[in-house]
Design a protein that fits this description.
The complex is a heterodimer of chains A (341) and B (506). Chain A has 341 residues and is of the alpha/beta class. Chain A is 39% helix and 18% strand. In chain A, helix 1 links the parallel strand 1 and strand 2. Chain B has three domains: 83 residues, no CATH class; 218 residues, 3-Layer(aba) Sandwich (Rossmann fold); 168 residues, Glycogen Phosphorylase B (Rossmann fold, 3-Layer(aba) Sandwich). In chain B, helix 7 packs across helix 9, helix 9 runs parallel beside helix 10 and helix 15 crosses helix 16. Classes of the chains: A alpha/beta (341), B alpha/beta (506). Chains A and B meet through helix 10 of A and helix 5 and helix 11 of B.
């Protein structure tokens, strides 16, 4: 029996996923690490597990079979890579070797062992981390908007991380979540849905043995930095509010992430050091043979980008799904030609 | 002279860059154009002192003009991180392609080390990171003194330093046989391969153990061979900094903060730009200490304590040899009382790590305050608004030049505000010998300790405390105390004999 960890990504995020995998491997050499890929390799690049820290890979095609193309066509890249997480969880839980299963977003890096979570999974079926665990002061209107109100809008729990055990309740959760993500993993905040994450609000209502982990060392990110301070102790251990830093969620690497980090990290220089390190690691893990912004399912097979409104129209029309088995194709009698009429 | 004219053309007397400089080097008035980054930033990523204060003020002004707290003001730490490069990249940029025209071979070098067919058993070999004869600096002055003591004992002092400087130990895969420059009794005799020097040395030539002042740029494996060639199997190893613990020799994590040398497997090392290099570095230093019998010399108890706690390197002995010890003796006749404004000085090069930006900010805030006068005693004139500058060169020939200048300028208070922990700080002792008191902070290593032991100065919490110290009259009080003390006390200094202070047997 082993702990299985997985992450879901397209090849344009392989660099980040590699950083996650190497930090996971450093902390937990015995874990089985999965890559869930909603993508196909670009020309000149081969994803070879022998050269990666990943042990196993599973693709969206393997998870969704014949319906893959018409189902994926209805999703943009973020929706697609999150929608597969439910089915992937069921797939991994079905492995009798998988004692505990933990999901991490590819833009996470581990700094200390996850042993306390493994202990929690001995008693609980599901472990979740909220975006925020401390209220903002009444006068901090900006922080209330950025951190608390956005938690209400995007989901109370951050689904960059969750952990489950082989408890029947975890299987019940996996089935329900997989079903919902199959049909409703979209950025539809107008109807109260935000990809996989908003569904998480219902988990404590539907399932037993759910543990809400309110340790500041887990899932540290720009949305909770206003209440978390990082420093090193004399032994060089990274601490967040005096608790060991377990993992940091490097959301939005680039100017947007920088701006949010600066807004809330303030003078906490150690956070900027963390980001500096992460940037260097991502650069090192970047494969030049993967074109920037690559996503196999991002275009029709003639290279024309698929616009969001086209995806939305396709997924909302059952008649189109029946008529066009592979909407990515562009030859005669295809959805592409139908669009052009 | 040309440099001075260029400086005047580029900078105003107040130290601010002239408008044409700003136009050429910066876009949007503040962002450094990439092709000029090497002018504005130093190799270690920090902003050159000339631009630091002006850049900071300009950023703050931007914030004030917009009336918003959301305008990003880059702090010193962020500027350092912005310019921080992977250590491997930094090391590559240090590598020079130029090779020397002529290298001494064994015969050439032997010709310098022997007198005809006669073997002279009077050689002392020292290893360090640069040419102590031409490079200014506290450690270099101490090595000059060591050479003098060697010669006074009838010994010949041979120094080997890397011809191609490096920010780390040499790597065998890049240079399996390092190029070294050789000084004999302070005179350069040429360049050679380290193996040539090792092959030249025989036990009957050498009078004392090899003295290792620094291993930067050397292969410790070759230095070990050199030690073995002397037939003594032991060496004296100086802790001028913490290089034996980490390539970040001031133990500055990411050039930002004192890390204290945590375990190499720690989060701090994983996240530090020096962390990756440190693993191999530590193993090689460990091997050196394992295979040589090492007598460790530390310039201060502070360094000895940190080193013993953090290094775990096996050694034959550890001795604290302060470069200077001082004694304060009552005078038979009191000096005349001193009046006038409080004179605050900065000693030495205007570098960030010695606290120049903090001194510059004090000038900026208090230069119009008639209670204070700001002076700089150094080899180069900073021209950043100081009231007075005095050219001071410390060398073996003029070892007391700085303390004499402090006395002559009637300096009351010397600001020593380092960004890292000082392992000794000659200027601190020179200031005290000159009759001044020191202003420093708690994290200044041996500076704070020297202030506490001599009761000559004040140790403050941080820069806010420093400003308050000047504003609320405490600075003037400290200056009064020092003037009173100076009237009735003499400060007598005694220099160490460096490695010759150690009673090391052959």
């Amino acid at each position: 029996m082993a702990v299985h960890a997985y992450t879901s990504f397209s090849f344009s995020y392989l660099n980040r996923a590699r950083v996650l995998a190497s930090t996971l491997r450093r902390q937990h050499p015995d874990w089985v690490i999965w890559a869930v890929l909603t993508d196909k390799e670009p020309e000149n690049f081969r994803f070879d597990l022998d050269n990666e820290d990943f042990d196993r890979a599973v693709t969206a095609e393997e998870l969704f079979g014949a319906e893959t193309n018409r189902w994926l066509f209805g999703h943009d890249i973020v929706e697609a890579c999150t929608a597969v997480k439910g089915r992937a969880l069921q797939h991994i839980l079905a492995d009798p070797d998988a004692d505990k299963v933990i999901y991490f977003d590819p833009d996470i890096a581990l700094f200390n062992a996850m042993d306390p979570v493994l202990s929690l999974l001995d008693d609980y079926s599901i472990v979740l981390t909220p975006h925020v665990i401390d209220p903002e002061p009444i006068t901090a209107r900006g922080a209330i908007l950025d951190n608390e109100i956005s938690s209400l809008e995007y989901g109370v729990f951050n689904f960059g991380f969750f952990a489950v055990s082989q408890h029947p309740e975890a299987h019940r959760f996996a089935q329900w979540w997989s079903d919902r993500l199959h049909d409703w993993c979209h950025d539809r905040r107008d109807i109260g849905v935000f990809v996989d994450q908003k569904w998480g609000n219902l988990i404590p209502c539907f399932f037993d043995k759910v543990y809400i982990l309110r340790d500041p060392g887990y899932n540290v990110a720009s949305w909770n930095l206003s209440q978390r301070k990082m420093h090193f102790n004399a032994d060089g251990l990274a601490l967040i509010n005096d608790e060991p830093l377990r993992f940091y969620h490097f959301t939005k690497l680039g100017p947007v992430g920088d701006a949010m980090t600066r807004r809330y990290a303030g003078n906490n220089t150690e956070i900027y050091e963390l980001w500096w390190w992460y940037r260097q690691e991502v650069i090192k893990a970047t494969d030049p043979d993967i074109p920037k912004g690559w996503w196999y399912y991002g275009t029709f097979d003639n290279g024309v980008p698929i616009e969001k409104h086209v995806r939305e129209m396709f997924r909302s029309r059952e008649d189109l799904k029946v008529k066009f088995d592979n909407p990515f194709k562009t030859n005669l009698g295809t959805f592409y030609k139908w669009l052009k009429l | 002279m040309i440099k001075e004219i260029a400086t005047r053309l580029a900078f105003r007397r107040s130290g601010k860059p002239r408008r044409w400089v700003i136009f050429v080097l910066f876009k949007d008035g503040l962002i450094v154009r990439s092709k000029f980054r090497r002018i504005v930033y130093k190799k270690n990523g920090t902003v050159q002192p000339r631009f630091r204060l002006w850049m900071k003020q300009t950023q703050e002004q931007c914030a004030a003009d917009t009336g918003s707290n959301n305008v990003d003001i880059l702090r010193r730490e962020e500027l350092i991180l912005q310019s921080l490069r992977p250590f491997e990249e930094t090391s590559k940029s240090w590598r020079k392609k130029r090779l020397p025209g002529h290298l001494l071979d064994k015969e050439d070098l032997s010709g310098h080390l022997t007198s005809g067919s006669e073997v002279m058993r009077n050689l002392v070999i020292s290893i360090s990171h640069d040419d102590y004869v031409t490079v200014p600096g506290g450690v270099q002055v101490c090595i000059q003194r060591e050479q003098k003591h060697a010669q006074e004992r009838g010994l010949r002092y041979l120094q080997a330093y890397p011809l191609l400087p490096a920010p780390r130990l040499a790597h065998v895969d890049e240079e399996p046989d390092t190029l070294v420059s050789i000084n004999l009794n302070g005179k350069k005799i040429g360049d050679c391969r380290m193996s040539t020097l090792i092959n030249c040395i025989t036990p009957d030539m050498v009078a004392a153990p090899v003295i290792v002042h620094h291993l930067l740029g050397h292969l410790p494996e070759q230095v070990m061979q050199l030690v073995q060639a002397t037939g003594k199997g032991r060496c004296i190893f100086w802790l001028h900094d913490f290089f034996s613990i980490c390539p970040s020799f001031f133990l500055q994590r990411n050039n930002l903060a004192f890390c204290g040398g945590p375990p190499v497997t720690s989060n701090a090392c994983m996240l530090c730009v020096y962390g990756e290099e440190r693993t191999d570095h530590a193993a090689r230093i460990q091997k050196f200490f394992d295979l040589c019998e090492v007598d460790v010399a530390s310039p201060s108890a502070f360094v000895a304590e940190v080193w013993q706690e953090k290094s775990c390197l096996q050694h034959a002995s550890l001795t604290v040899i302060p470069h200077i010890t001082i004694d304060q003796r009552p005078r038979a006749q009191a000096r005349a009382p001193i009046d006038g404004p409080v004179i605050i000085a900065f000693l030495g090069s205007a570098t960030d790590h010695k606290g120049w930006p903090v001194f510059a900010s004090l000038i900026q805030e208090f230069s119009s305050d008639s209670r204070f006068k700001f002076v700089v005693l150094s080899t180069k004139r900073p021209q950043l608004g100081e009231d007075h500058w005095r050219d001071v060169h410390v060398s073996a020939a003029a070892p007391d030049a700085m303390s004499e200048a402090v006395g002559a300028e009637k300096v009351d208070l010397v600001l020593h505000w380092p960004t890292s922990r000082e392992t000794f700080s000659l200027t601190t002792f020179e200031a005290i010998v000159g009759g001044a008191h020191i202003i420093t902070h708690h994290e200044s290593g041996n500076v704070a300790r020297a202030v506490a032991e001599t009761e000559c100065g004040v140790v403050l919490d941080d820069e806010d405390d420093l400003r308050a110290f000047f504003r609320n009259g405490r600075a003037a009080e400290l200056a009064d105390q020092r003037r009173t003390k100076h009237r009735s006390f003499d400060v007598v200094q005694r220099h160490s004999q460096m490695s010759f202070s150690l009673n090391v047997k052959d």
